[in-house]
Amino acid sequence: MATNFWSSSHYKRWIVDRATLRQARSDDVLYLDDPDLLGFLNIFFANLISKLGKKLSLRQRVIATATVFFRRFYVKNSYCETDPFIVIAACCYVAAKAEESPVHIKNVVSEARMLFGEEYGIKSFPSDNSKLAEMEFYLVDELECDLTVFHPYRTLMTLCGKEGGGSLPEAEAGEADADDTDGPRYWGTGEGKLELQEGALQMAWFIINDTYRSELCLFYPPHLIAIAAIYLTLVFHAPTRAAIQHAQAQAQPHASTSASHSHSHGQSHSPTRRSSRSAKKPHPQAHAQPQDIVGFMAGLNVSMPLVATVAQEIIALYALWDRYSEDPGVESARAALLQRTRKGRAGRAEAQVQQEAEGATAAATGAVTPMFLVQVLLGMREQRMADMAHPASGRPVVVNKMLERTQAAG
Amino acid sequence: MLDEWSSNILVTDPMRVYRSKRDAARKRVTDKYSILGFISSGTYGRVYKAQSKESDGRIHAIKKFKPDKEGDVVTYTGISQSAIREIALNREISHENIVSLKEVILEDKSIYMVFEYAEHDFLQVIHHHSQTLRSSITQPVLKSLTYQLLNGLLYLHDAHIIHRDLKPANILITSSGVVKIGDLGLARLTHQPLQPLFAGDKVVVTIWYRAPELLLGAKHYNKAVDIWAVGCVMAELASLRPIFKGEEAKLDSKKNVPFQKDQLLKIIEILGTPSERDWAKIKDLPEYQNMRRLDPFANRLGQWCQSRIQASGADLLSHLFAYDPDKRLTAAEALQHKWFQEAPQPTRNAFESLPSHQIPPHRRITVDDAPSMMPLPAAGSQAQAQVSQVQATAQANLSHSHSNQSGKAGSGASFASMSAGGTHTRKKARLG
């Protein structure tokens, strides 16, 4: 189970399609002037989870799991009928337990109260531990008790990780039973590793962090997201891209057909080519030569069009994020990307980022801020409450408040 | 637009609407199952035998976690780590030799885990042979039970799960003789742990089944601790009593884990004093010096096995009991052992070779002495509660007398998979 994604609850029950998600948001869009705001809310909530997680000293993987829980909860619920802030706190609390690094409930309550109250003016967050524990109960129920989540980080480390853990900020504790004897990988060539430079590996890691600002984790299996992140890294990370271009230029004279397309090129001629069929060990001299990165990517047994789609969506996320004004944080790959696009470097993908970003900024009347989104959320909820009391049919629903008050009192 | 009450709710309890919607939609335990009786209880909560109200009318075991209490009022205080673990792991796994979880119902501040029902468990089979039949478990049954146990364990280990609490009470057998490993409450995923294993639970595995590396204070351990426990269980099946029945030294007031001298002594008396030649890393373990102070013994496992297990079975046992965890057999290797190739080969139904009168009796169910643990139909008022209590008692009495016809010495002791209690007291600390 821990090794087999294809038999996991994640794969079997929690990869959803867009129609399902549109349905999930159908009530919310009634109360939004601009459906684009949903994208901003995705970024906003993920940032909140990340902030709360950092205050609780949660590891990146725990924060990622909490974010996935949050997304899954809102596959079945509306923002306008719930309080996302307590849901966020419950997600962090449950994720910490699910990832075997529990935090005390009272820490979650006090940190969440402080964060939401002081930075976002949310006064409704309860001070009572039992309210969070109650939310945990409903959350676990909504999650159908599926608490094991797969993340792209694992694929990244499988494909590119250095033996003995690198100097990544979040190198996992490969302690105790650290047997990586998973047998042949269930996809890919099962051979070798992609040797990325330290900076490139870090960039891929940060791009994966960034993907949690979107709903990608609901649409695609984590290994595709990881490969898309690696692909973007190969394009954006200047030294790596230079190395690829250099390798291609060198290989060019040997090519029988002029392979301008990198994929076909990589597959046709390269000294360290890895193929799913070749059982031979890499030629000894291969070590001396620079690695054939393009060939490695092409040799992965995944749908490249799908990887390209995921990469496109990540770029679209960056474009949207550019219109959102909150400190992007040091750990965001987007921060690095933005700097680079502003320098106006060439490159198709980058140009696209820039183009989309410019178009978006022009269209936007102003940047979206967290405080604005908080107001939007509160407004949605108020209107929803009003509508439930006075439905469109014009016939007000009888609300027996006396009864409800009695119930509330105990 | 909003009146005072509504806007108040938005401030004081913005999840009111959500909860009432959910509560209304939720099917209650008693809507889906009728409770036939009470099976066992422990520190974790209580286990009931129940029948599905669906057309198949299947029998289940429902484990109800003890609700949290603050004074007399049941409140939410957070789901325990062990419940989260057991739920999370069970949702991902599926194997013939692992007790399967049908569903989890969260209702009224309580968690109900609905498992497939199993009529017997290893402990009950051992009791049946030692108390009623007064004869040892036959080799074909012993072999089949051991094989199936290893087969289930292989699945868990392949999924990177260490069980950490294998013992006879936790290993169930269905009425058709299929072994089912239960109680994953202490189990852990070991793939890429964010924290080392010892950080969470300082003490794991009931003392009699605890591997030497744990007794010697190893901070890092692995799947091999389960294999040691399998060895203990196999030996217990063969001799009808625990092979290493030591006294547990209690945690001191500072919750320090003491040196388990007596338990280690019990092991050494049979397996001999471990040498650095058997186990090179032993000298690095925290309690090594303490162990050296114990009297030396020679290995007499062969002698111990003589009247109890066939020669090749004894060979398997000696390899399950390798001191060095790195030399101990893995589940996969153990399944390849020649004992399982030899006649009689292990059968899928462990009881296949038995005449019907030797098959252990059905699990005994009783009247719940704390009926309030089960939700009452339309729970709420006191009067209703009393009525349903009477009903429940009558219902339980019915099934009670029924089960009595079939078995006199049923093991009321424990529904193993669920049991932390029973005849073996739970001897370990848990992280809340």
UniProtKB/TrEMBL annotation, chain A:
SMART domains found in the cross-reference section: CYCLIN
Gene Ontology molecular functions: cyclin-dependent protein serine/threonine kinase regulator activity
Occurrences of domain Cyclin-like (ranges): 47-141
Organism superkingdom: Eukaryota
Keywords, alphabetical: Activator, Cyclin, Nucleus, Repressor, Transcription, Transcription regulation
Biased composition (Low complexity): 246-261
Pfam families documented for this protein: Cyclin_N
Region (Disordered): 246-288
Sequence ranges of Basic residues compositional bias: 262-284
GO biological process, one term: regulation of transcription by RNA polymerase II
InterPro entries from the UniProt entry: Cyclin-like_dom (IPR013763), Cyclin-like_sf (IPR036915), Cyclin/Ssn8 (IPR043198), Cyclin_N (IPR006671)
Residues annotated as transmembrane: none
Localization annotation: Nucleus
An example Gene Ontology CC term for this record: nucleus
Family: Belongs to the cyclin family. Cyclin C subfamily.
Name used for this protein in its record: Cyclin-like protein
Organism: Polyporus arcularius HHB13444
From TrEMBL, chain B:
Region (Disordered): 370-432
Localization of this protein: Nucleus
Domain Protein kinase: 33-340
InterPro entries (UniProt xref): CDK (IPR050108), Kinase-like_dom_sf (IPR011009), Prot_kinase_dom (IPR000719), Ser/Thr_kinase_AS (IPR008271)
Predominant location category: nucleus
Cellular component terms (Gene Ontology): mediator complex
One GO MF term: ATP binding
Biased composition (Low complexity): 378-396, 406-422
Record EC number: 2.7.11.22, 2.7.11.23
Protein name: Cyclin-dependent kinase 8
Provenance organism: Polyporus arcularius HHB13444
